[in-house]
Write a structure and sequence with these properties.
The structure is a homotetramer of 307-residue chains. Chain A is built from 12 helices and 8 strands. The first copy, chain A, has 307 residues and is α/β, with parallel strands linked by helices. Chain A has an 8-stranded parallel beta barrel, surrounded by 6 helices. Chain A is globular, with a radius of gyration of 18 Å. The interface between A and B is medium-sized, with 27 and 27 residues.
Chain lengths: 307, 307, 307, 307
């Protein structure tokens, strides 16, 4: 597979990691999941992200999951692997392993201890040094990491480190950040901006200059359509589609709980065999499942009205 | 005005504090705002909340705003006043002042330093002791305060302190919290649960047993209708209405930025004279205003389709 | 009293706020405390700091305390007043009041929400704008505020804002920060650097280029002697004195608990009438008092050996 | 080696991890370090703690270090291994590996996301379930983890989970916590309490009922003597010894910087070959080294006076 570049666009779906109810990895579901994501129009996949329960896997499990997914993808789309870790030795080890397996690049979130502009820039300088020629995605997700990167800091990283090819934009609010980064003179070279936050601001993000999404709503087809319609300048249709999915997207975007909702929905759609999360991670209550079921029923009804 | 009780229900709108562009309080807009909120069906008002820019006011300004609003309300609905402060002396002073002016009760958020269950319970025990007979609203808003209260802790506070009559429920995710608090045996006496988060989960919150909302979307009529339709068991219509407003509600719920969007919308609707925030607080960019305008246009179109 | 300038040096003692056991301000003890601090050689006082329980006072109480202290000081040394508050209106009101009473300047800590370099610089730019000609002390205390200011950020503030005359240096570790700020070319104008952290690193701080201390150990004479001996190049004697007081200084520097220990010691020395803290703030246990008593006994013995 | 039990006492030194200047593990220095720690009187060792730069090691490096240290120790004292990790799979894998190698038990710090009492208890219940029969040390270090455990929560964990045999007590302030835990009726079975914080409160901790220390000052002989003298009721001599080392202990206890100071001192004493930290981790400046040198010279002089 060719390497990730600044030309990345479309929808890189953040893949879940399927588990059996007893906590073992459900490696068979990986195949069905890959097929599903590609059929819905994903232009890339991102595995072992925060929503991939990456920190709950051992290094050998991580490699197994990546290997299986890469094999099934078979080079049809680029696969990015999350390698965030407390130390550079761990980042290095996992990066070597997954690049050897055929990954297109890696994604690195900042450790929560970073505060000042210089600390953040220095950290990513060391990351780039560790990664060598491997292209990487800069993950900007303050709600979870606690690290706030100003547009100026992102620009310093992008301008200084040529292997930083993509920003996973996940600040909230973050629309102005896209506009500032896209303003004349801010970035000295191209940068792919793919947005997160479960697609909850995707229409506005596209309007501000994003290249697509890198996130994980259980109906990736919504994101694929919105990105596609924006590229065709059909904003009205894009927003109609978006609005139809919004009640569920909003529900799935509840911190912590959201992944269980996403897995429940994916299992309901037949994509993965079980909606299990590995511990820690409680199952959904009956009540929550009923709420999801009802949101999906309404969503289907609304989508029919739109066709 | 009679005191706030555990029977509080409906929609307590979190009032904004109107400013002139130069930062002075726009006291005239207070009247128009009160009229607007009551006309839309608010069953109560909450002033000097976080979204009321309370920390930016001096104590004498706070009293001026409360006095004007209470005068205009004229006892038609109960008015709750936010009195959160770093020290009990400040809480005490402001509480005495606003209760003398005719407030129905006060609201207290926890200081960010609280961590353990006992620390939280002890804090509210001291709050209740400071307030004496004044009824208070317990504000549970972890995203902003950083304080996480388990249902057990809330139950201890409610069961131990009879003047705690209402929970401003604003955890995210928070639906299970409502279910747990409403479960048999958890609370030993009635408690009003009014929900926040800009109404973004209002249908599900009502379904879980909430009594209404205490939050501040620029279209309070949405919340009034949703609460009303739920009380009439017309859930489908409630969700239709909710869904129509959701794209804007989602947009207004962006942390930090949301208040500027809310004020812009209220000014656009003619409720307040200016959309100014007091410093610190940047004005919206042209781009953001255009996004809001478009969301409102689509919202109006969708509402027409529903009628 | 003349205004605070970049020439501030020596020991600005952070004054406690004395209370009666029932929580009322003990205004009489203020006089005795002022006399004590000046007799021990303080070159300035700082009132309403974090260790002055400032957030527990109402605005009128704050003014009463400042007025009484300023009257007793009678212009003999400059008095700095802490005016940190969530909003500029509050900062402005308290600043006007205390400057009218004769304060020499004010001190402002950053609100905990600040993260990026630009956010911090913008905040202090607005502070300086609010204060007008009033000279101010920049308080850099990450352990408590959560705000990390790099030397570069401090330099930007100092170089841009001529009314920022003094840094209350309280980072931990913070010695390199002094060295970097004192390096050629970093600051474009003079700056007084007075150190905090209870004097726990005072010898090394003086060696790095600090001008003295602005903190509140119950034996200010230690800090006065250390600063004085350093200015006379008698480092050995300075460190001998420092070491003799270190066991108690270390004990007093326990977060949260430290102020109670300081007040107990000051009451034991006859400086203030009671060791009471205003709520919230628990009294010391018997055991802790006994530990303090024993540390003081050993300290006195050691000081005798040194003479 | 027999398993760690509630009878653990004395000084469990937190071992550093020695590196070559190029970042490779300096496996030869491990032997000399083990010899040194045991010669100074350590009754146990704790490896891969926070101060052992554990998060910077890959899993295979971690196992190599533990294997080498265990081999050199040769069963003379129990060795505890830090296994804190974001997920249970990682904890499980490392635990199995090090117990097979001959470790006496493991140590687990809580993840920073834990807030409420129940969350903390649930986490350790899952930890104990994951560990099976392996005895573990509960690490209570709020300054670094951000997790605050009340004595009540610690008691719940200890009383419910028989494999929790030891508390690494590192709260600050934390003396009252020891007293409360040692109070009649609080704990229903024995618990070893070993204290951290670089030994900075060791005399008072012993006086409150601690069983010793589990921390890492570069002069472990200080801690060994203090614990020993306390057990012989010679408090005066214990405090004399403590006071002599306090200036350096205080200097070594600077967050972040402390480990570099400790390694510099250990290298200076000939214990490890290099004072290198693995990235990220800056070397000491010349100035800091000079400060340490001077503190050591003064310490040696003072110790001579005491003999």
């Amino acid at each position: 597979m060719s390497a990730l570049t600044t030309a990345a666009r479309g929808v890189f779906v953040i893949a879940v990691t399927p588990f059996h109810p007893d906590g073992r990895i459900d490696i068979e579901s990986c195949d069905r999941m890959v097929d599903f994501y590609l059929e819905t129009g994903a232009t890339g996949l991102t595995v072992l992200g925060m929503m991939g329960e990456a920190p709950k896997l051992t290094i050998s499990e991580s490699c197994d999951v990546v290997a299986r997914i890469l094999k099934r993808v078979g080079g049809r789309v680029p696969v990015v692997v999350g390698v965030s870790a407390p130390g550079f030795a761990q980042i290095d080890t996992l990066t070597r392993a997954v690049m050897d397996l055929g990954a297109a690049g890696v994604m690195v979130a900042p450790p929560g201890s970073l505060r000042t502009d210089d600390q953040i820039v220095n950290y990513y300088t060391q990351v780039a040094d560790t990664l060598g020629e491997v292209p990487f995605v800069l993950q900007d997700f303050p709600l979870v990491t606690g690290v706030q990167m100003s547009p100026k800091v992102i620009a310093r990283i992008v301008n200084d480190l040529p292997t930083c090819v993509c920003l996973k934009h996940e600040d909230w609010p973050g629309l102005e950040k896209i506009s500032v980064l896209r303003a004349e003179g801010m970035l000295k070279r191209p940068l792919s901006i793919l947005c997160g936050n479960g697609g909850l601001f995707l229409p506005e993000e596209m309007g501000r200059g994003a290249d697509g999404a890198m996130t994980g709503f259980a109906y990736p087809e919504m994101m694929v359509q919105v990105v596609d319609l924006y590229s065709k300048d059909d904003m009205t249709r894009a927003q109609d589609i978006f609005d139809a999915y919004l009640p569920l997207a909003r529900f799935e975007q509840q911190p912590g709980l959201g992944l269980a909702i996403r897995k429940y929905t994916l299992a309901r759609r037949g994509v993965i065999a079980h909606d299990s999360l590995r511990r820690p991670g409680a199952p959904l209550t009956e009540r929550t499942r009923a709420e999801v079921d009802q949101l999906i029923a309404r969503q289907e009804k609304r989508l029919k009205e739109l066709n």
